[in-house]
Amino acid sequence: MEQINKTPKQIVAALDNYVIGQNEAKKAVAIALRNRYRRMELSADMQEEITPKNMLMIGPTGVGKTEIARRLAKIVKAPFVKVEATKFTEVGYVGRDVESMVRDLVDVAIEMEKQTAYSGVRAKAVQAADKRLVKLLVPAKKKQANKNGNEFQNMMNMFSQLQNGQMPNDPQNSNEEVTDDVRNQRLSVADQLKNGSLENADVTIEMDDPQQATAGNNNMLGQMGIDLGDTLGSIMPKKRIQRTMPVAEAREILVKEESEKLVNSADIYHDAIVRAENTGIIFIDEIDKITAGGQQNSGEVSREGVQRDILPIVEGSQISTKYGPINTDHILFIASGAFAESKPSDLIAELQGRFPIRVELDDLSQDDFVKILTEPKNALIKQYIALIGTDNIKVTFTIEAIQAIAKIAYNVNHETENIGARRLHTVLEKLLEELLYEGPDMEMGEVTITESYVNERIGDIASDKDLSRYIL
């Protein structure tokens, strides 16, 4: 598990690359993250006493609440899960068990631990995978086996390996008749694999059936911490299928299989649960939609009941997962909501007390829209220039055009529904619609997007309230 040893200023600086403005929110989450590192430096007794200060972000949609939390988790390489609070109010099979968000967090942590463990053994796994590829590319003749004795022995060996939780070895490998000619061919192919000259050659491999893994993934049982796939897998051997693919793709599948043999799953599960407990972040969106205020339909689960279900998890409790129990005492919970038709005080008092840090995110200004279009690493203008550039068309935006786009997005937000920065997606898509459509036939060229082009394409639509309501 990696230490979160970034300072608050470093975390804010990293967030600035992706999120414009919202300095108060960035500062608050940076302090919350740094406090986790501080806690890990204390004695074990003191660590148990210090709980994370959960946060409630308040602000309209599209101002960066989710983006701050998601980017924060990536920066510190922490397990992160985003859930919609409204999912827990739906009745029937679509309504989810509240504890499922913790189990989802453990699943994310396990994938992260697997990647770390697999990267540590990759060199050995690649060697083993290349050996298997050599045998597949240059197959040898099978020996004439003594059917009565050998098949029975092979079957007993396979059952023994299954009982010990191991993947059964292919008994046919030991029955190969390797001649000098085959041996020389394999040496030649092994050299070609090392040189990378066979990456695009086709090879047929046997692999686990992905459909079988999906079939065992029962959503309802998974929510209760029961893994039907593992249960059936311990009784029945995995179904294998044959696929023909390029060597480069086949190697990655074989590397994964070999990596699984080289790592200890029990260690991965243990480390993943520790990682989730100490660095996990659960982002609960739309928490304002489960306040008691407002109308409640007869087809909805009690909103206050959902709050009471969430409360023990946020307070700290032990949740059963298929990998073992996890304690939620030190998981960081970040809740967010627009609170347009309700207010934080409409939440039950106990839940309010579990979110002591309140951060109000600012509405985005026209200047903020200009910055969002140009400054971040993944800025929308940069994205569209790169997309259209694939058709050999060089697109340039003048600063006046960018300001005009920002002004239109800002005005439409305040004349219709305020959806924050998401309005820029709608405006840009409409603005560049003709260019995106005609681009492949133009083959090459240079296009400059000017203020007059912006006004010509979407100026009239933006000025007409009825049109902008439906189009932008």
From TrEMBL:
Residues 364-458 form the Clp ATPase C-terminal domain. InterPro entries: AAA+_ATPase (IPR003593), ATP-dep_Clp_protease_ClpX (IPR050052), ATPase_AAA_core (IPR003959), Clp_ATPase_C (IPR019489), HslU (IPR004491), P-loop_NTPase (IPR027417). Residues 51-365 form the AAA+ ATPase domain. GO terms for biological process: proteolysis. Belongs to the ClpX chaperone family. HslU subfamily. ATPase subunit of a proteasome-like degradation complex; this subunit has chaperone activity. The binding of ATP and its subsequent hydrolysis by HslU are essential for unfolding of protein substrates subsequently hydrolyzed by HslV. HslU recognizes the N-terminal part of its protein substrates and unfolds these before they are guided to HslV for hydrolysis. This is ATP-dependent protease ATPase subunit HslU. It comes from Lactiplantibacillus modestisalitolerans. The lineage of its organism: Bacteria, Bacillati, Bacillota, Bacilli, Lactobacillales.
